[in-house]
Specification:
The complex is a heterodimer of chains A (about 575) and B (about 325).
Chain A (H helix, E strand, L loop, with lengths): L1 H21 L30 E6 L13 H10 L4 E5 L5 E5 L7 E3 L2 E5 L14 H11 L22 H5 L6 H10 L2 E5 L2 E5 L7 H5 L9 H7 L15 E7 L3 E6 L13 E6 L3 H9 L5 E3 L5 H5 L2 H4 L2 E14 L9 H9 L3 H9 L4 E2 L15 H7 L3 H10 L11 E6 L2 H18 L3 E6 L1 H9 L5 E7 L27 H12 L3 H17 L4 E13 L3 E2 L21 E2 L3
Parallel strand pairs in A: 1-10, 14-15
Antiparallel strand pairs in A: 2-3, 4-5, 5-7, 6-7, 8-9, 9-10, 11-17, 12-16, 12-17, 13-17, 18-19
Helix pairs in contact in A: 11-14, 17-18
Chain B lengths: L1 H28 L13 H10 L6 H13 L13 H36 L4 H15 L2 H15 L29 H27 L2 H8 L4 H30 L2 H6 L5 H10 L3 H29 L7
Helix pairs in contact in B: 1-12, 4-5, 4-7, 4-9, 4-12, 5-7, 6-7, 7-9, 8-9, 9-12, 11-12
The chains are: A alpha+beta (about 575), B mainly alpha (about 325).
Chain lengths: ~575, ~325
Amino acid sequence: MRNRRSWFLLLMGVLVAILALVTFGCGGEDEEGKETPKATAGEGDLAPPDQQKIVVQSGEPEFFDPHRSNFEQDIAVERMLYRGLYQLGLTDSGEVEAVPAMAAGEPTVNGSVYTVKLKSGLKWSDGQPLTAKDFEYGMKRECSPEVAGPYQYLLGETILNIVGCDDYFNSGEKTPEEQAALRDEMGVKAVDDTTLEITLGLPKTTFTTIMSLWAAFPARQDVIEKYGDKWTDPGNFVGNGPFILTEFVPKDHVTLKPNPNWALEPKPELQEITVKFIDDTEVAFRAFQTGELDMTLIPAAEIPTVEGSDTLKSQYLKVSAGRIWSVEMQMNNEVIKNPDVRLALSRAIDRETLVKVVYNDAYVAANYWLVEGIPGYQGNGPFESIIGYDPEAAKKALADAGYPDGKGFPTLKITSLDRPDRKAEAEFLQKSWKEILGINVDIEAVDAKTRSQAFNSKSFELFPGGWQIDYPDPENPLIGLFDTGGGNNQYECSDPDIDAKLKAASTETDNDKRIKLLQEAETLIVTRLCGAAPIYQTAMPYLVNSKIGGVRANGSLDAAMPGNWCPECWFVKAQ
Amino acid sequence: MLAYIIRRLLWLIPVLWAVATITFILMHLVPGGPFTQEKKLPEAIVAALNRRYSLDQPLWRQYLTYLWNILHFDFGLSFRGDRDVSELIRDGFFVTAQLGVLAFIVAAVVGVVLGVVSALNHNGFFDYVGVFFATAGASLPNFVLASFLIVIFAVKLGWFQVLGWGGPTQFSDALDPGAWDIKKMVLPVIAVSTLPAAYIARVTRASMLEVMNQDYIRTARAKGLTQYAVIMRHTIKNAMIPVLTIMGPIAAVLVTGSFIIEQTFAIPGVGRAFVDAVIRRDYAMIMGATLFYTGVVAFANLAVDILYAVFDPRIRYK
């Protein structure tokens, strides 16, 4: 009897583990990266300070430490807590640009040495002076092997190429003395309190944009050395953004209050922002309806509910996001490597209907790769007639590939996230290909990590996936994604013409010529369907309580609430 | 009895070891690790992260290190924010247990009362009401019930709130009276307690009906005991044995939390934390939570076995 019970306990434990590992292996997808807000004044009358409090929804950040952050929800909150030398904003004509934030103006460029002057009199939230040394420390920290920052490559050779950043980062096996020497050799130097000198391997036209990102945020050496990994805990926290972190309850919320030493205009009107951690936007949607949330992302499935209600409709705000979505195709596959097969698959997808039936038109049908909102956007125009929906052309392409009416075509596998909307998307593709091309695909629906693992190990055939831009520049969604051997080129696109364009673009110092080269690369990638057939660009459907003013998009195309707007511009209107 | 309890507790050690080992193996067999993501991290960054978290060590060494650490009650750090796993489980369990205990009390009271009333009113009006509740409650999944409750009582009527837990969410706030908000407690408690209440009601009713037909009940009546004495002293007490048997596992399930209910009401409990940990391959948190669950289930079963002896004098442990 006792023996049997022990076995029962053992069995229970194992069952719990197996059930959790297998059954619940679905849900939240791992996703990334983001940008800065621009200070713009709000409109309307202000409510008194005691009413200047709002509650907003977000996924739970892992860290509030910008140099360790990997996910959009982390970076979204960090945008409220810190600010870089530059920040992103929109020009009057609606184009995204990096404008000075902590910097006093544009950098002085001498070859590949960039000198940035800081505004004078800057302070941290605790009143201590904010100097060029803090930026030097912050960037060196991002390149530190001990910190192991997931976005180190933004400062490393892959993107900005600060001299010595990669050497320092890859020195994990070396002695502390050797590491210190490599750190000192890095091309970031505070010449004096307000002058920072950054040496790059090559001149870089996107310098100010990269300097607006979290990887280049300043950090306080004394605070970090005193508190170690606990330096962002309430009470220890020191920042230079419009808000400070005053309370943190893991799994539940953080509370932010205005930073009394915030250097830029406007000064925050909000006296308190509570960021509630809610991954399930369906839950958040109901909490918005009960008045417990003032701002939230909502599921696309609820858009008809929102549009059917006058009160909700007036609070609905759709913001374009910098994510392109596609059917990624493994070019090493014997069948898929035939360009006519890829053309047939692409031309059989009715993108307009897909975004309508699966996403209630929350997204925009796309035949392009460079998203709307970044320089170099070409839109559907050049591509729709070549790869867009056309059943007859699709059938012809499949016949040209040697499979008339799908005869002899093997069954391919499509690997999708095990989430209702993504499964519906995969079923839509499956049905389209069956009906138009007469071919079969099997759907394999898996959890986020299994899906990513399949992608990174290149063990997939067809894979709905895409790219969320880290910063609004056309190099970000291209370089490393479509060049032969690129770190994110898991579909094995390998085309000498594309390689040549991307290589030329990465060393081109004339910005207009550089963007032209990147557009030409996009044209080759899309028309040759080199690894990906674009299907839509996402947008983020939000509900924003009508009592809140000053909420506007700033062109940074963030996918996370609430980082892509200027939080210091938000205010509660007088009722 | 004491020797029995000590023996049972000692048995827990090999059980926990086996669970830890099997979970460790399964966890590393599942595709993808904590740093696997669609936007692949460069090799150098993954190498630096692995070094930071000692994942660059061979698996057998990670396993031995883990066992050594848990012997010292060090459950490691969650990859999410480097927070201490024991603190996360403690705080999560603190919330889940409040919900679980409240739901258990509601389920036990409602279930037993309904079951007893149904049995005493066998084939009468209250019996049908009780059976209807028991059947409906058992067949309605708790997330469906939760959605109905939310839409009707929170969204339409505005009586209750749906976001977060209405009790203290961190152990350190336990004594803060300002941390209690009953408007946020009612719906999750109802959603969690309905199914177990229905189950307890069915078992209570069936058990009562069976006991009421026993010879000793007839004897009790024959010797002239009042109806009250017969029911309270002889019927209910004896009918409670099968009810107690199911209450152990019910208590264990309730205090370890429901992922779906915690997700639906955004409650920062341990059930949600565990499932999140699996989704994110947060190794230390998966291990810590699995061991914690095993311990809770073991103690719940032990408690039931001890209660048997209390309620049924025929049961003696050696």
